[in-house]
Amino acid sequence: MTIALMSHDGKKEMMVQFCIAYKAILAQHDICATSITGKLVAEATGLPVKRYLAGSQGGDQQIGARITYDEIDMVLFFTDVSVRKADADRLIEITGLCDRYNVPVATNLATAELLILGLARGYLDWRDVMKSNKK
Question: pTM (2 decimals)?
Fold first, then answer.
């Protein structure tokens, strides 16, 4: 499965710590991320991370396009509620795409832990079944 990682500036360290804690699970999947988040996660974990542009430079749209084409199976987007309007608008766009295309999304640590543990236990295998039925 492909997991997209995104985080607002104030949550990047939390994302790094999360990825360190769940490195063994993440290592079994393809990881992509917006630029700085991806760089920090790759450096801290040694995991290969496909990096897109920074969120404010179009990385959010790149990930959004991959969601639309059913190329992303989970989004972990650690958000900061005190961000400026442009960042909040990008969050709304990504979560809206996830809702439209049935992609599990977490915007906080608690939900991300539920999703990553569910992934490890096979609770998200239905994504693979959906993809094979489309072919």
Answer: 0.92
